Amino acid sequence: MSVLSSRELVGRGFQHKFGDAPTASRQFALTLDDPNTPTQEMLDFVNIKHGDYHPEYTYLRCVDGSVTENSPDPWHAEISYSYELPPLGGNKDFNPNPLARPDVWSFSTGGAQIPALTYWDEDTKELRPLVNSADDFFEGLTTQEAEVRLTVSGNRPFFPLGIATGITNGINGQPYLGGAKYTWKCTGISAQQQSEVVDGYEIAYWAVTAELVYRQSTWLLKIPDIGWTYIDAADGKRKGVYVLGPYKEKIAASNPQALNENGDLKCPGGGPCIPDILERRVNVIGNFDAFFGTPPP
User: Would you call 32 exposed, middle or buried from its count of C-beta atoms within 10 A (0-12, 13-18, 19+)?
Assistant: First the structure.
C-alpha cells in the first residue's frame, strides 16, 4: 500500500479582503496502488507540514491539511492545504511545535486603593506627609494608585509547581521592566493541560499563565512610626506616651505619638511633630528576569 504519484492541481486559491488577513489554498491529486493506503502516508508523500511557507506568498504558512478519498474511484485521493498568517507573533517567531513557541505578553492598566499618607504641595510641588494642622496623620484615608497588569502566557512540558508556589505573592528583588525593586508582584500562576498533533505526533503540554502587577510606590508596607508606648532612653523601659500640660506636666496622650527609630519619643518637648514613615517588606523576593524573562521588542 503506497502512493504512486502526486501532482498539484491547477487553480491555486487566494483571498484578501481589505482589512482582513489574507488566505490561500492548494490542492494535490494522488494516485494510489491500493485503496487502503493510510492517510498519513498520503500526507507524508506530499510532505507539506504545518508551518511550511506558501511557495508564492511567503508571509503565509500552512495551517490546515485535509485528505479526501475519491468515491467511487478508490485509486485516487486529493489533499487540500490552507495557508494563513502565522498566529502569535508572526513569521519571525512562529513554530508549529507548541513547546517551541515564544511566550505571549499582554499589558493593561487599572487602579487600586492604597493608604493615603502623602500629598502634593501646590506651592513647593513636593510630596509631603498628609497630616492635619497638629501634624497627626488622618486615620483610614485611602487613595487610588495606578497599576500596570502584565500577563505572560506560555507552554511548558510540565507545570512548574515549585516555581509557582515559591514566587506567587513574591516581589522583584532587582529592577525589572523599568521598575525599581519591590515594584512588581506576582499575583498568581495558573495552568491547564493541553495537547496538539504536529506532523503526526501528539504533543502534550501545560499552558501556563502568570499575572504580575506593578505599583510605582512599591509593594512595601508604609506605616506611620507612631505608638501608644515608647522606650525611655534614660532607663530603657517601656512607658505610656504622653503630652505636656500647661505646666509642663506629663499627661497621658489620647492618641498615638511619633517615635524615633530607637523607640523613644520623637518630640518629648511637645509641639507639632510629623511622624516618620516606616517601610516594611512582608513578601518574599525573587529574580523576575529569571522567572518570567522579558517581552519581545
Answer: buried
Residue pair 219/199 in contact (Cβ under 8 Å)? The answer is no
H or E segment at 2?
A: none
Low-confidence stretches of the chain (pLDDT beneath 50): none
Distance set, CA 36 to CA 7, 8, 133 (Å)? 20, 22, 92
Using the 8-state DSSP alphabet, how is residue 40 labeled? H
Domain boundaries, the chain: 3-84, 98-220+283-292, 226-274
Residue type, 177: L
Grid cell, residue 4, equals 504512486
- Exposure b/e, 243-257, CB count within 10 A at least 16 = b: beeeeeeeeeeeebb
Tens of pLDDT, residues 84-142: 988 755 666 678 889 988 899 999 998 888 888 888 888 887 777 887 777 777 777 88
- Alpha carbon separation from 249 to 91, 191, 246, 260 (Å, rounded): 80, 65, 7, 21
For residue 88, the model assigns a pLDDT of: 56
Q: Which long-range contacts (CB under 8 A, 24 or more apart) does 175-183 make?
A: 176/288, 176/289, 177/150, 177/214, 177/288, 177/294, 177/295, 179/214, 179/216, 180/218, 181/285, 182/218, 182/219, 182/220, 182/281, 182/285, 183/214, 183/215, 183/216, 183/218, 183/219
**Dihedral angle over CA of 102, 103, 107, 111, nearest 10:** -170
Whether the Cβ atoms of residue 1 and residue 38 lie closer than 8 Å to each other: yes
Q: What pLDDT sits at residue 130?
A: 81
pLDDT at 90: 62
Task: Give residue 136's pLDDT.
Answer: 74
